[in-house]
Structures are given as C-alpha cells and as structure tokens.
Design goal:
Layout lengths: L3 E4 L2 H10 L11 E4 L4 E6 L6 E7 L3 E4 L2 E4 L7 E3 L7 H5 L1 E6 L1 E6 L2 E7 L4 E10 L2 E10 L11 E3 L6 H8 L23 E5 L13 E3 L2
Parallel strand pairs: 4-12, 7-12
Antiparallel strand pairs: 1-2, 1-9, 3-4, 5-6, 8-11, 9-10, 10-14, 11-12, 12-13, 14-15
Length: 215
C-alpha cells in the first residue's frame, strides 16, 4: 500500500509535465509526505488536453455537511490491480499522479523512502463528485527485489513514454492494452531505484544511507 508520497523538485516537475504537454502546471500542489485524504495533484484528459487538476486522495467520498468528505466505511487510497476489471473508473476515468518519492514500511515498521531521483507518474483512478474530484493510486503485487521493504505491493508507475501516457489518459475502454503493465517493475527510464530508511513514515529525517535496488 502506498500511503505517503512526495511532490517536490518544483523546477524539475514543471519540465517533466511540459514533456507531455500538461496544461495548468501552476495548479500543482507541492510538498513532501503527502498523506491520505489530503488534496493532491493529478493529471486527467477529461477536458480534452492533459491538464493538472486537484483531487482528494481517497477514491470514495460521501456527502457531509454540504461538502464531499472521505467515506468513513471504505478506505480507498489505493486500488488493487486484481480488482481493476470490476471498477468502471478503470475503463472510464484513469489519471496520472505526479510524484518524486514514496514511503513504505514492513508490517508497519522500518519505514523507507523509495526514489528514482527524478519525477514520475503513479498510475491512478479518479471519480467526480459534483465539482470535487477524488483519486486513488493503483497498486501491483510486490516486486521480488522490494519485498524486504514492503511485502504486499508496489505502486504502478507509468513508463516515461508519451504513447503510454496518451493511451492511459484517453477515454478508451479497451483496457487489454495495459495488461502487460500490470506486472511489478522497478525499471524507470534507466534510473536506479534507491531506498533509504526514515525515522517515521511521515518524517523527512533519514536514518541511513541510500541503497540501490537491483533486480
């Protein structure tokens, strides 16, 4: 489960978004250790061209006091890949979530930060609740090289490929084209995945040197 992630390196992120022609980069919410139920930035193509929008990081919401809040009965910050075929959002409302790092732990202990050293997109889903958007991050099975840090899952990361990004954000209901991407991978644009222990999942205090993860 991905439950904490970073969006920093503002200049790099803006250049990254420009590669894909993403509009309204000024809407980006930056900050380290973004947490569930907070507002985060996503990229959708629901208005035509890809653009930054902001959403509540919790896919299922409920009406409370005249506004939409995270649903108390359904914890939905992540969407497991095995359940995607039963989710209409996978066929109709896919999004990308810009990030620069994420934090995981082993059975709730020994939190570590994962990073590629450059921006990337999580693959996600979004829903529309009136004028409010919500989102979740798609999680895959754990990779054999990362199980010692987090035994259950690995977030789905979009390849650095404009063709994939266009297809993912399109309104195409033909999800078979994404089947090969639903296998856990640690490769990203020839970058090395590094892991570094942190004091707590929400802390930016490091407790050791980074370690490069290899296959």
């Amino acid at each position: 489960m991905c439950s904490v992630f970073d969006v920093d390196r503002q200049a790099e992120m803006e250049r990254f978004l420009d590669i894909y022609g993403v509009e309204h980069p000024e809407r980006m919410i930056f900050g380290r250790r973004r947490r569930p139920t907070q507002q985060v930035s996503i990229v959708t193509s629901r208005h035509g061209e890809p653009q930054v929008e902001n959403a509540i990081w919790h896919l299922y919401l409920e009406k409370e006091g005249g506004s939409w809040k995270p649903h108390k009965k359904y914890w939905s910050i992540n969407s497991n890949w095995k359940k995607l075929d039963s989710r209409p959002e996978y066929r109709k409302s896919r999004c990308l979530i810009p990030a620069t790092a994420w934090v995981e732990s082993l059975c709730g202990k020994h939190p570590v930060e994962f990073s590629y050293g450059e921006p990337y997109f999580f693959c996600g889903l979004y829903k529309i609740w009136g004028s409010t958007l919500s989102c979740s991050i798609i999680t895959l099975d754990a990779h054999s090289a990362t199980k010692i840090y987090h035994e259950k899952s690995l977030p789905m990361i979009a390849p650095k490929d404009s063709g994939f990004v266009s297809k993912w954000l399109s309104g195409s209901t033909h999800t078979d084209q994404f089947t090969d991407f639903l296998q856990p991978k640690i490769e990203y644009d020839h970058c090395q995945l590094t892991v570094r222990p942190v004091a707590r999942a929400t802390s930016t205090e490091y407790k050791g040197d980074p370690v490069i993860i290899s296959k």
